[in-house]
Design goal:
Number of strands: 20
Strand content: 15-25%
CATH topology of the largest domain: D-amino Acid Aminotransferase, Chain A, domain 1
Helix content: 25-40%
Strand order of the largest sheet: 2-11-10-3-9
Number of domains: 6
CATH superfamily of the largest domain: DNA ligase/mRNA capping enzyme
Largest sheet: 5 strands, mixed
CATH class of the largest domain: Alpha Beta
Bound molecules: adenosine monophosphate, zinc ion
Distance between the termini: 34 Å
Length: 663
Amino acid sequence: MTDKELIIQLRDELRQHNHNYYVLDMPSISDYDFDMKLKQLQALENQYPELHDSNSPTQRVGGAVTKNFQTVVHAQRMYSLDNSYSKADLLDWETRIKKIVDGPIRYTCELKYDGASISITYKDGVLFQALTRGDGTQGDDVTANVKTIKSVPLKLQGDFPNFFEIRGEIVLPFEGFNAMNEARVAAGEEPYKNPRNTASGSLKLQDSSEVARRPLDCLLYSIVGENTGILSQFNNLEKARSWGFKVPKEAKCVSSIDEVLEFITTWDQARHDLPYEIDGIVVKVNDLQQQAELGFTAKAPRWAMAYKFKAEQVSTLLNHISYQVGRTGALTPVANLEPVALAGTVVKRASLHNADQIEKLDVRIGDTVFVEKGGEIIPKIVGVDISKRLAKSTPTIYLSECPECQTPLTRKGGEAQHYCPNTMGCPPQIIGRIQHYISRKALDIEGLGGETVALLVNAGLIKDAADLYTLTIEDVLPLERMAQKSAENLVNGIEASKNISFERVLFGLGIRYVGETVAKTLAKHYKHVGALSEASLEDLEAVDEIGVKIAESVYAFFRDDNSIRLVSRLVSYGLQLELSEEALANQTTLLSGQRIVVSGVFETISRNELKALIEANGGKVVSSISAKTSYVVAGANMGPSKRQKAEQLNVPILTEQEFLDKV
Ligand code: AMP
Ligand code: ZN
């Protein structure tokens, strides 16, 4: 097999695995094997830039940056849908359309996904362009971003038309949404409010590699185009599925409004078990000929009707408002409710967000309030039943002092949240910071949980993360539910955390906006906490992927006396606040001044590791062979043209082993 054939075969193979995993939900290869094959393909593609294909599976990671999204006029307008809320509405609709078309009408019932609508065109089976809905007449070209969504096929299979447009919805499933929010909260950032806004916001991100990191999904529901040879909406869906699109299986074709209502009743209940949010059902006349006869009003097709679920809402009594203080000092007001059943769960608490929200709704203790459960995990209060308000009720006065330490609260300009500024003395902030420090992705201390941290702080045994390293078995034994064995485990776990890598300790410090990824970047760039703490603002901002907000936060952290003391104590207790010896030992100047080309696939080391090794030793990795190239490190499958060029220019070719012997 030639390299070119191998590239094509790998692309096909990986495309099929992607489809099985993201569209069919039936993985057909281990993650590891997938990564290996992807690496192999990447290596070959690097070697043969002339065989570049923007629809190769390697392109899913994104990289393209769009500064201004191009506005494009839709070939066919993207209409809105008429809404209905009852059986009567649907029967009215049926009467109206029966006046226009003859014969029996069948309906396709579909779920109404709550995300961002998207129009994608395919030319010769290859993704050509993706547009947002915009105002319906013209939308934004978000092709680069949409290409990173794994369930969107870049190349089609089967008997697809040469040119067609397909429409659907980009959604963010709950699971991925929650994971994103966990990461944000861990980095001291505000969580996203709901999956729909986050999905549509993601489409307009400038950096497509950021989009690639978001667990977005794309569900398709309609093919637009004249000459597809398809006769009904339901067949449309089946066809689209056969070409490789993700078309949910829930759609159903029925022959009466009564059956439509049955479908609605079923999904009004079952929607709570779906992995993503829906806000209703869309009913479409199935026959495309009948659809054509019905046509459009100024706003929407006559042949379709959305049935909107009532947002699940209940009313209940607001017993009192409590306030939570987070590890960053941010205050969150929480409504404590008379327990009430809502969307399959019993709700006792609801978020009130901040002082502005309370004022806007004029929520008062003793009010009967309306509670709704939307895409958010925590239900929210959407209004007050004024008719039930007690005569003696008074407006809610927002707290002026921290409920935990009585320090007057502050509110920074532009921020919605109130803060307790008593960073060092406020118990929930102290506890929250240490809990973050010991959390799984930070120091992950075995034998120590969040509750024990609270006990230790409340017993006056610790005030910050560094104090953990002074604890003895005798210190902790008197704590509630602490036995000899668990005390030993705890102390041993703390001791073992001294081996945790620099990047995780850095993350554990809880610097605002420094999440896992940023911590990794900073650790790698600065190598040592000393260098990081001395870095100027400009220097920080110059680091890849570090923006102003992060730079300012890091800069301020290392100029704060308390943080300085904490870090230096952690150093003195032997925590890893620099890259490990192993990582550093590999940093040499052995290859300085050398320009090295890496080509082919390697056995004992991955291509990326090899490049990292060259850079760690002061060498420079270059992509193409020239007279200035010092040498080529060649693995299996080095292309013949490259080899020829190296020979022509007298550039030495080293095997993997010959290179590894050098460093
Ligand atoms: P609305 O925004 O309420 O006017 O509803 C119209 C929108 O519903 C369309 O723009 C689509 O983005 C969205 N939608 C979600 N699911 C479907 C579906 N199965 N069929 C048609 N439109 C849908
Ligand atoms: Zn406080």
